[in-house]
Specification:
The protein has about 70 residues and is mainly beta. Helices cover about 10% and strands about 15% of the residues. It contains 1 helix and 2 strands; from the N terminus they run αββ. Strands 1-2 form a two-stranded antiparallel sheet. The longest helix is centred in the first third of the chain and has 6 residues. It is elongated, with a radius of gyration of 20 Å.
């Protein structure tokens, strides 16, 4: 995955390694002035409910009624 496969092992593929492909993917621009979007990635119940996500757009601050 990190290094290209030698021709002796895989003669039909001559492209980049998986890591090279991932490193060259374009990074989307984050829009801080857009609507708040936080996709839920996971949840956990331990002394209450914890929800895990990533802010995709907008700004989330303490005291804005969501926390």
């Amino acid at each position: 995955m990190a290094e290209r496969v030698p021709k002796e092992i895989c003669n039909w593929y001559s492209g980049p390694s998986f890591f090279e492909i991932v490193e060259n993917l374009p990074v989307p621009e984050r829009k801080s002035e857009g609507a708040l979007r936080v996709p839920v990635l996971d949840k956990m119940r331990d002394q209450g409910l914890s929800i895990f996500g990533k802010v995709e757009s907008g700004i989330l601050t303490t005291g804005n009624g969501l926390i």
